[in-house]
Amino acid sequence: MHNKVLTLLFLLACTRAGAQTPIVPSDLSVPSKIAPAYFGPNAFPVPVIPEARLDKNLRVELSGDFFLPQDRRLDFTGGPSFHLRIPLWTDRAALSLWMPIQEWWNYDAETAALRRLGEAYKDGGKGHDSGDLYISADLYVLKARGWVPDILVRAVLKTASGNHFAEARYYDAPGYFFDVTIANSLYFNGFCKELRGAASGGFLCWQTDNGRQNDAWQAGVSAMLDTKVFRLETQLAGYFGWEKDGDQPVTVRGRLDFHAGRFTPFAVFAWGIRDYPFMMLSAGLRYEFPLNRWF
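The structure assignment produced for this chain is given below.
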C-alpha cells in the first residue's frame, strides 16, 4: 500500500511538471510584459468596432496590410489578411472569421532589446509565418426603429495558431473578448445617404505567464458617412489591461470604401495613440454575395 501511494504521488508530480503548472503563485506586482507595446502589430490588435447591422450577404475581404514603426525603433511588418462573414440562416446571426494569412517582419537590435528577446535575437531578426485566427459569433439582438438603436452582441475567440513567441510576434495562448455595439443612423435624400454613429464596450482577456491572465475592459466610438460614391468611417477604440505596462492600447482608425457593385475596393489607415507603436496602411477588396435564395 505504501509503495502504491508513493507511485501515485510520483505520477502526479510528473504530470504537474509536464503540464508546466506553476508551483509558486505569480507575483502580481511584476508586469508580465505580454502586452501590445512589447509584441508585433498583429499579436494584440485593437478590435474593430463592427457595423452592428447584419443582413443575409456573404462577405469576403482580402487586403494587404503594412505596419510601420512610429519611433526610431525598426519593426516593419506586412502581408495579406482576410475577413469572412457567413450568415447563419437568418439576418440576426452570423459567423465571422479573420486572420493574417501570412506576415513578413524585419526588426532591429533596439527593438529586440526592448522586447527582451535574449541573446539569440540580440541583433534583430526577420522571418514570416501565418497569424492568429479569430472566430466571432455575431448576434443582432435589436433592430433600429426611430430612436431605438441597432444592438449587436458578439463573442470572439482568438486561437493560438500564431507562432514565434520567442521573437514576440504572437503570444502562444488563446484569448477572447465579448462586446456590445449600439448604433443608429440618420438618412438623407441626395448625394449623402446616411450618417451613422456607434458606441461599443466590452471585456477582453488573454493568458500571460505563469498561469495568470490579463483582464481588460474595452471601449470605442465610431462615425460613418455614406454617399452615392463612397463610404467614410472613423473609429477611436482601445482596451485597458490591469497591469498598466504596455497593455492599454488606443488607436484611431479611418476606412474609405468605394461603391462598385458587389466588389468594393477599400483603404484603411490606423495610428496607435498609446501602447501601440505602429502606423498601419491597408488596401483591399470586398466581395458581397446575397444568400436570400438559400434561406
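Interim note for the steering committee: The domain at 34-294 is CATH 2.40.160.40 (Porin). Helices lie at 2-18, 109-114.
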